[in-house]
Design goal:
mainly alpha; Rna Polymerase Sigma Factor, Chain: A; Arc Repressor Mutant, subunit A; elongated
Length: 172
């Protein structure tokens, strides 16, 4: 069965167009039976024929073309279903969206305020607070980096936090 061998690109395109006309409805029906979703089935049908277009030369004629096409269709459907399951979307209520926006704005404002407070500190104090609370370094790591005892690092962090609090309170 040599009918799918394509000597040139134009013949290849014509062949895929012919196959599309012949099999598109069957592929779509198979997709519907698997996905139970018309829109998704239309998309998958297009994906199947794009795959057929790119892989037609690899069809090895060991099975009927329809069997090969069925396998591609089934695999495409399962891939889409797995993807949907992995990235399941949910509708967010307007109230939740507004809450998220308010929270994001609050976080942005708090971050800006914290940065302003850090600018009011001595550079070493601000750097120590950034390393601890923004970079997540441990007390031990900070004590090694600054060549201080862990208790000295804790005390400097406490004093830095107190200065930040005083600065923020002074703005109100």
């Amino acid at each position: 069965m040599k009918r799918f061998e394509t000597p040139d690109k134009r013949h290849h395109t014509d062949l895929v167009a012919s196959l599309y006309r012949q099999y598109a409805n069957k592929v779509f029906q198979q997709c519907i039976s698997i996905t139970r979703d018309n829109e998704l089935s239309r998309d998958i049908t297009q994906d199947v024929f794009l795959k057929v277009f790119t892989k037609l030369d690899s069809f090895n004629h060991q099975a009927h073309f329809s069997t090969w096409l069925y396998t591609i269709t089934f695999n495409q459907c399962m891939n889409h279903l797995r993807e949907q399951k992995r990235f399941k979307m949910t509708q967010l209520s307007q109230e939740l969206i507004e809450t998220l926006v308010d929270t994001t704005n609050w976080i942005d404002n708090a971050t800006d305020l914290f940065e302003q407070a850090l600018l009011s500190l001595h550079a070493d104090e601000a750097n120590l607070l950034r390393l601890k609370y923004q970079k997540g370094l441990s007390i031990l790591q900070l004590s090694q980096q600054y060549r201080l005892t862990p208790n000295a690092v804790k005390m400097r962090l406490l004093r830095g936090r107190q200065k930040v609090i005083i600065y923020i309170k002074s703005l109100n």
